[in-house]
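Exercise: predict the fold of this chain.
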Amino acid sequence: MPGLRDFRFGAESFESTRSGVLADARRAESLGFDVFLTADHLFDHLAPISAAMLVADQVGRLRVGTYVLCNDFRHPVIMAKEAASLDVLSEGRFELGLGAGYLPGEYEMAGIPFDGGAVRFERLTETVKIAKLAFAGETFSFDGAHYHVRDYTPYPRPVQLPRPPVMVGGGGRRLLAFAAAEADIVSVQPASAPDGGLRATQLTLSSLKDKVALVRESAGDRAADLEINIFVFDAVITTNRRAAAASYLGELAERLPFVAVDGEVTVDDLLDSPYLAFGTGDQIAEQLVRVREETGASYIGMLAHLMTAFEPVLSRLAMS
C-alpha cells in the first residue's frame, strides 16, 4: 500500500489516582509512546478531560487524547469548549476522540436511555459538526434533529489549526463512512452487537480490511490524509503463538468481557487479528507491519498494562 504512515503508539490508562495516572504517563513517555489516552466510562477511573490535563501539565512530550468520549454523556457545546480549553492549556497537544457509546450498563447506571444504534449515530454526527464549527471560533447556529445551538460565539479557539485532530471511532458501515468524510483519524473497531458489546466475529484481519476499504472509498480525495487507528485489546507474550491463541479462544468471553461472542471464531482468526497480539516481540512487530501494509493502519492504541510487553515491539518499529 503506497504512502504508508510512520507508526504511532498510544497507551490508554484506567488509573484512578493522580500517582497512578502520572506513573502510566511517564512510563509511556520513557518507552517511546506518542499519545497518552484517557477512557470515558462511568466506572473505575478518572474523568477523561481532567486526567488528560494532568498529564499534559506534568509530562511535557506526550500528546494527550480521549479514547473515546461517549457522545451521550455531555452536550456537544460543553464538550467542544472543554476540548478547546485543553488544547490551549496543553499548548496544542490534544486529540479529540469521539464515539457513539456501546455499553448499555453505563447508560442504565446513569439513567440515560440507551437508544438504538441509528439514533446514537445521528447524535454523534451532529456533535462532530458542532465541534468543528466551535473550533473555527466564529459565531454559529445549528439546527439538528437532536441538538440546537443559537448564535453561539465559541471561546477559546484551539491552538492547533484548523483544529485539534478529531478521531471518530466505531465499526458500523454508516459510522465509518461518516468518519471518512469528517474525521482526521478513523478508529476502526469491531461493530457493536444489538444488545451491546463488540462483535467477536469482527476481530479478524479480513474484517478490518473490508472496513478500511470502505473508509478509503468514502473519503474520496481526502483518503490519503486520513490516519487509520486500531486498538490492541490484549497481548500474550509467548514462544508458541498457536498454543497461546488456542488457550485464549477457550477463555474469550472471560478475557474480553466487553466482546459479544456472536458466532464462530477460530484460532487462526485470533492469530491474524489486528486487535490481539500473540508471540515474541519480533513476531508481534512483524504482525503489525503486515497489518499496516495490508490496511494502512499505523496508529496503534493499547491499554497501559500492555506497555511493558510492547517495549521490544516499539524498539523494533521506532524507525518504521
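Check your answer against the key: The chain has twelve helices and 15 strands.
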